[in-house]
Amino acid sequence: MANLISKRLSNIPYLPYIAMSIAVPALVVIFSKKAKAANQRIPYNNLKAFLTMIQYAEGTYGQNAYRMHYGGQLFNSYARHPNIAITRSGITSTAAGAYQILYRTWASVQQALQLPDFSPASQNRAAIELIRRRGALEAVLGGRFGEAVEKCRKEWASLPGAGYGQRERSLALLSDVYRSAGGQVVV
Hints:
The protein contains seven helices and two strands, in the order ααββααααα. By secondary structure, the chain is mainly α. It has one domain (14-180): Lysozyme. It has a two-stranded antiparallel sheet. β1 and β2 form a beta hairpin. α2 (15-58) crosses α7 (171-180) and α3 (103-113) packs across α4. The radius of gyration is 25 Å and the shape is globular.
């Protein structure tokens, strides 16, 4: 039976061209869906990489990032922001967590977003909200790295040009960290 079908199909002129005319549009649809899905992940990857870059810049990147006080000590409970003022190198700060969020900033964001605790998920949501408040979220999602850093520099003291008297990381170093974390820069 298979031989009979094969023989009949081989007698149809231009069959390979007909088959290709059907297959090519199907492949285009399949690959364009995959490309579209990949392109939809780019903004998420850029945001994730930007958050990683902030952690690196703030000196919290690592397994204890979400438990870190200003100065490097660790806290044990995610129930609430620890709100402990720590003095180090002449600077006193209540900054805590992966993004070193000050208590007064946390109180504002927590209320606005109705965050239940200071868990990693809540800290991530708070950091994204702070990026949004600085008018940088679209730049982050779009891969406009320099613009995003410029807009966020007054939120995080470690970003270049922040001007808070703390150690600021270079834009080139932070760009390398961002790219290593999967972020794409659009020029």
